[in-house]
UniProtKB/TrEMBL annotation:
<dbReference type="GO" id="GO:0004040">
    <property type="term" value="F:amidase activity"/>
</dbReference>
<dbReference type="Pfam" id="PF01832">
    <property type="entry name" value="Glucosaminidase"/>
</dbReference>
<protein>
    <submittedName>
        <fullName>Mannosyl-glycoprotein endo-beta-N-glucosaminidase</fullName>
    </submittedName>
</protein>
<dbReference type="InterPro" id="IPR002901">
    <property type="entry name" value="MGlyc_endo_b_GlcNAc-like_dom"/>
</dbReference>
<feature type="domain" description="Mannosyl-glycoprotein endo-beta-N-acetylglucosamidase-like">
    <location>
        <begin position="2"/>
        <end position="84"/>
    </location>
</feature>
Length: 88
């Protein structure tokens, strides 16, 4: 999914994977494994919207707001965010 997201969003795949590994502690964080809100899990591999004061809550709320209810949606959505906010 990272490679396909990188290609579709015009972001380097090594960057996407590295960013996700850093933000999720090698996919061990709660955000990488899904945080349950109102009975549904939301994912955030890049820490988008996660504030230092409460990164799990704010990162999960951002994921919910953007519909990242599957790992694939979070990977693609995060890649889109990176493209729009850091590369454009």
């Amino acid at each position: 999914d990272f490679i396909n997201a990188a290609k579709s969003k015009h972001v380097n795949e090594v960057y996407l994977i590295s960013h996700a590994l850093l933000e999720t502690g090698a996919a061990k964080s709660e955000l990488a494994n899904g945080v349950e809100i109102d009975g549904k899990k939301y994912y955030n591999f890049y820490g988008v919207g996660a504030l230092d004061s409460d990164p799990i809550k704010t990162g999960a709320e951002y994921a919910k707001k953007h519909g990242w209810d599957t790992p694939q949606k979070a990977i693609y959505g995060g890649a889109d965010f990176i493209h729009k906010h850091f590369l454009s």
